[in-house]
């Protein structure tokens, strides 16, 4: 599916027509999705985008920490580089994050479109991203114990279940540890929806796309347990994991040493087995994210030594703006 096809599908599903030039007549439609914030306010909140407020940068733009008036939380302001391609990604994120809300999806606070400026404003996540915790730089000491790792694994899975198994379908398409943000309690928030695809229902083609998210989740789960950076050529990774000589025992020998010998070995073996299922070469052999979530909950119960039903999918996990009945519980159906 081309970028233009994705744009048309998004526009049709949301009942809007947009021009990527973001003309003034287009702004009221966007204001239905999220709060419009002036560039002057964001400029002041970041102290003129001062470098000491810079908390991240990449191919899309720069991310700044900001304190906005009338908000009871810190914000993270993404200032996109001036590019037509990035304008489309900004639009996609705004459309999806503006309409759909979930505990494991990064909260969008607002947006700014003025002249050539394109900015999105998110709730600030004080513990940064998962990649930096798993691969600290410059001899930093960052430790994620097993409890936090399984909490993060479950939270990301819960978010993907909500995206995949709802009365709509969203394919993230770019899941990785650097786009998993962590709040003060290490609750994970999936971010980076610039390349996401939205569908009102799923067919055979969409189901294949879902399995791509499942595969990437499997890589993420292995990264969580092994502590290794798997962002290598796709075929190289597939060959290593699916090779007949690569057994669970082989993978266990590569487990992050900080997790070994702490009474969690049985749970680690179970997580490795789940991850291997997610990265099977044939997409049809991979589990759905709902199946993965249920397996992770079984592992969590073993970890606690008791039945633990605290991580259930409730109506608060499946709300989105514009839904008429706040009390209705959306049925999660396995595809």
TrEMBL record:
InterPro entries referenced in this protein's UniProt entry, alphabetically: Kinase-like_dom_sf (IPR011009), Prot_kinase_dom (IPR000719), Ser-Thr/Tyr_kinase_cat_dom (IPR001245)
What keywords tag this UniProt record? ATP-binding, Nucleotide-binding
- A GO CC term? plasma membrane
From which domain of life does this come? Eukaryota
Q: Where is the signal peptide?
A: none
**A GO molecular-function descriptor:** protein kinase activity
Question: Key word Nucleotide-binding present in the record?
Answer: yes
* Protein kinase domain ranges (all copies): 49-296
**What name appears for this protein in its UniProt entry?**
Protein kinase domain-containing protein
Species source reads Hevea brasiliensis
